[in-house]
Design a protein that fits this description.
CATH class of the largest domain: Alpha Beta
CATH architecture of the largest domain: 3-Layer(aba) Sandwich
Helix content: 25-40%
Number of strands: 10
Distance between the termini: 41 Å
Largest sheet: 6 strands, mixed
Length: 256
């Protein structure tokens, strides 16, 4: 039994069937990639896991716990974190403050105390700042920009800040939607390195959607392929790349 299980998941919007009987079993400590053509239903799977969509049928379990009746914020508190295809940051806030927001699910003091900065909230805020500065900002190599507003940063660094905010949620499972989309070669290499380090150094299981097949082949332990809302193949990156149906549906016919 994996740390996260998706069992015969189905989802529709009106008359459009988005997912049909999709099952995934994600082992702890692995990088599990989901690939497929645009519109195949990949992001919808992450939205169901995170609680943004409610599936029509099927079951999602996290560490053996059925998530059917668990709210989105409670899933975050249990250890499910998320980055998005389109960056979702507060551009007028600093890098540090954006990252600190990721820890809200774990704060013990109430919102009012935090706003008014009462004693316990002040102590918790200082602990959180130290954790973010000493662990996450240092880990992501963004010490020199921590006090800059996010809007002043290039795209690649904004993606790194969003990753930092997800890490501040102290995840056990990290959901990543196209983490290297729009990046140049150097930024892509850096992000791939951070993803591997998150798995190995921080003991986080990663489920990612990505179109860059070089990244998939380099860092993934296991790959599932989705086409028209159905899983058509699953296995190691090498096995999936050679699967005839995957070649037809996504990778293109091999030449030679």
């Amino acid at each position: 039994m994996g740390i996260l299980e998706v069992d015969t998941l189905s989802l529709s919007f009106g008359g459009l069937q988005v997912l049909s009987d999709v099952s995934l079993d994600v082992s702890e400590g692995r990088i599990f990639a989901i690939i497929g053509p645009n519109g195949a239903g990949k992001t919808s799977i992450l939205n169901c896991i995170g609680g943004f969509y409610r599936p029509d049928a099927g079951r999602i379990a996290f560490d053996g716990r059925d998530l059917s009746r668990v709210s989105t914020d409670r899933r975050a508190a249990l250890g499910l974190a998320r980055t998005f295809q389109n960056i979702a940051l507060f551009h007028g806030m600093t890098v540090l403050d954006n990252i600190k927001l990721g820890a809200h699910a774990h704060l013990k003091t109430g919102l009012l105390a935090s706003v008014l900065y009462w004693g316990a909230a002040h102590h918790e805020e200082m602990q959180l700042r130290r954790e973010v500065e000493e662990e996450i900002i240092d880990f992501l190599e963004i010490e020199d920009i921590r006090n800059l507003p996010v809007r002043a940063l290039p795209y690649g660094l904004q993606k790194r800040v969003e990753l930092g905010r997800a890490l501040a949620m102290r995840p056990r499972v990290l959901l990543m939607d196209e983490p290297v989309a729009g990046m140049n070669a150097e930024e892509t290499e850096d992000m791939a390195r951070f993803i591997l380090d998150i798995k190995e150094e921080r003991d986080v299981t990663i489920i990612l959607i990505e179109h860059d097949m070089n990244v998939i082949m380099d860092i993934s332990d296991h790959v599932a392929v989705i086409n028209f809302g159905r899983k058509i193949a699953e296995g190691t990156p090498e096995a999936v790349a050679d699967h005839p149906e995957v070649i037809r549906a996504y990778l293109g016919e091999k030449k030679g």
